[in-house]
Structures are given as structure tokens and as C-alpha cells.
Amino acid sequence: MIFLKLFFEFFKTGLFSIGGGLATLPFLFKMAEKYGWFTANELTAMIAVAESTPGPIGVNVATYAGFKTAGILGGITATLSLVLPSLIVILIIAGFLDKFRSNKIVDSVFFGLRPAVVGLISVSVMTLFETTFVNKLSTVWYQFIDVKKAVLFAIITFLVFRFKKHPILYIALGAVVGICLSL
Amino acid sequence: MKELLQLFWAFFKIGSLTFGGGYAMLPMLERELADRYKWVTLEEIVDYFAIGQCTPGVIAVNTATFVGHKKRGVIGGIVATLGVIAPSLIIITAIASVLELVMGNAVVQHAFSGISVAVCALMVQSVIKMGKSGIKNIFGIVVALASFCASMFLKVSPIIIVLCAGVCGAVYKAVKGEK
């Protein structure tokens, strides 16, 4: 039953991705690998769409991934499953908000959690790089990096750090250059 | 009932007008929730954000649940949450349907090749930002590296890594606290 599987996977993602939208990525890459619902390449397109449309990125990616997997109902299932754990957790916490915030144990658990999330997202970034820059037809990947894309990456990265404009601008720039150079 | 509709509408607007999620939503939340409806104060919003960062799930959704709960209890929390995710559901489903149709087109494929390069650049920036705020000392660096290696090379599930890192944080602070 695809909807049950979607529910289970996205519930798990919602429950364990801590620290915002991008934290869902490691789980989504695992899902792509495990179920083949969507490819790593498609996930990259999803991230781009999610970054350039309104709404929280995690929710956008979940809707897209669910839609890809099982149509409109799939999108709804994935999104609701993703938010259900946080809905439950927050409704519980809301009752004793101040105690939660000042709790020493909670604080120290998150002291360890935050760096781990950074490590996990870095792995997702590596996967993104691999699907973007590496020529899949080769087995020795480092010999087949797409040079045009690498140059474009260097330029956009420079612009991103230099000007800190809205992501949608860089995404549009990428699209235009991609079409002009037939990347 | 009127208040529930208002909650839904306010969060529907927030969901449909904020790009980028996370901290990008802060100014919008401020304007709508604190200035316009006066449901919560600015300090409360910042508190919700801080808790949203260290509870599971998407921060914007967590904030919506908090504010809804404050106004109208559990039902309010559910209504506000549905309000904030509804625009994404509609917009993304529409875009995804169109993309399905045009994905085979060569121009669209070239565009997405370029877009994925831009996404890589944006992700590098996001990770560096998260690293700066989340990694405070040598312990953080070790945990981040260990998590990276465990996931990258040993293919350990992110769930196990998250749980272990939480335990490590608790143990580290406990040991350090005793000295």
C-alpha cells in the first residue's frame, strides 16, 4: 500500500528532521535510494522548485515528492504525515513552554544534535554535487566533472556570498545560463 | 468560528507569501501576527522560533502550531498548521503537474541543469550558515565530522545518527558540568 508507506516514511522524516526544512534532505535522499520513488536528480529539481515558490521548504519538498510518487493524494499524504509529528510535539510542549526552554537536559541534547544535523546535510550536499557535476556514464567519476557547470558554480557561489540576494534570483540566473549554454 | 477562520486565513497568507522558509518567514510573521492581529508579541515569536529549531519538523509549521494553540487550544493549533501548509500543497501540486508535462523538453532540461548548479551554490551557503550557528567548539566539530562519515561511508541511517548525537550532547554536558 503506497499511501501507508508514504505516511510512514514522511512521518519518520518529520519526527527526526530537526532544525528546519533542509534537515529533511538526508531522509529524502535515503528514500530515493531505498524506494526509487524519485531519483536524486529529480530531488535536485524539487529543491529548486521548493526554494523558488512560497512556503516552508520542507513542506514544499514533501508535497512534490509525494506527488511524484502517487499523484495529488500522494502529495497530500506526504505533507500531512510530515507535519503530524511536529503538530503533536508542539501541542504537548505548548503546555509547559518555559520549562522546556530552560531545561538543562533538553539544552545539552541539542548541543549534540545541531552539529550532527550539519554533518548529515553536508552528506546531502555531496549527493547533490554528485548528481549535478558528475558524468554518470563514467565509472571513474573524478575524471568526468562537467567543466562548464563547475565554472558556473564558482561564479554563482561567489555572487551568493557577495550579494546575499533572494535565492530565486540565483535560480533564475542558473536557468538562463543553462538554456544559453545548453548545459 | 470566526477566530478559527481568521487563524486559517492569516497563516494561509503567511504560507503563500514567504519564500525560502525558516528565518525568511520571521519578518512576515512579525508583521502579520504581532503588528496586525496582535495575537502574540515579538518576543514570543522569537521564542517559538528558538523552540522550532530544536523540535522536530519545519520551523514555520511549528510556529503556526504554537500561535494557533495559544489562541484557540488544540483545534487552533491544527487550523493554523493546515493554513500554513495549504498554499504549498496547492502551488507545488500545480507546478509539479506542469513540470511532469514539460520535463522531456530540451530547453527545460537545460534550464534545470543550470538551476541545479545554482541550488548547489545555495546549499553550500546554507550549510555554512548552519555550521556557524550550530557548531560551537571542538566537540561540535567532532560530532559533525563523525555524523558526516557515518552517513557518507557507512550508510548509517540518519535516525540513528540523530539519536546518538543527542545522547553524546547530554553525556558531554553532564561530564563537563561535574568538573
Describe the protein in words.
The complex is a heterodimer of chains A (183) and B (179). With 183 residues, chain A is mainly α. Helix content of chain A is 80%, strand content 0%. Chain A is built from eight helices and no strands. Chain A has helices at 2-16, 25-35, 40-52, 57-95, 97-102, 104-133, 147-163, 167-181. The termini of chain A are far apart. With 179 residues, chain B is mainly α. Chain B folds into three domains: 2-102, no CATH class; 105-133; 135-179, no CATH class. Chain B contains seven helices and no strands. In chain B, α1 crosses α4. The termini of chain B are far apart. In chain B, 46% of the residues are buried. Classes of the chains: A mainly alpha (183), B mainly alpha (179). Chains A and B meet through α1, α2, α3, α4 and α5 of A and α1, α3, α4, α5 and α6 of B.
Characteristics of this structure?
heterodimer; A: mainly alpha; globular; B: 179 residues; 83% helix; flat
What's the β-strand tally of chain B? 0
Q: Which geometry of chain A do the CA atoms define?
A: globular
Q: Which assembly state applies to the chains in this document?
A: heterodimer
Shape of chain B: flat
What fraction of residues of chain B sit in β-strands?
A: under 5%
Overall structural class of chain B, as computed from helix and strand content, comes to: mainly alpha
Number of domains of chain B: 3
Q: What would the average pLDDT of chain A be, to the nearest integer?
A: 85
The structure class of chain A reads mainly alpha
Report the sheet-strand fraction of chain A: under 5%
**What is the string of SSEs of chain A from the N terminus onward?**
HHHHHHHH
User: Which protein chains are joined by the largest interface, and how many residues does each one contribute?
Assistant: A-B, 104 and 94 residues
Give a quick account of the main beta sheet of chain B: strands, pairing sense, barrel closure: none
Low-confidence stretches of chain A: none
Alpha-carbon distance between the two ends of chain B: 56 Å
Radius of gyration of chain B: 20 Å
Mean pLDDT of chain B: 85
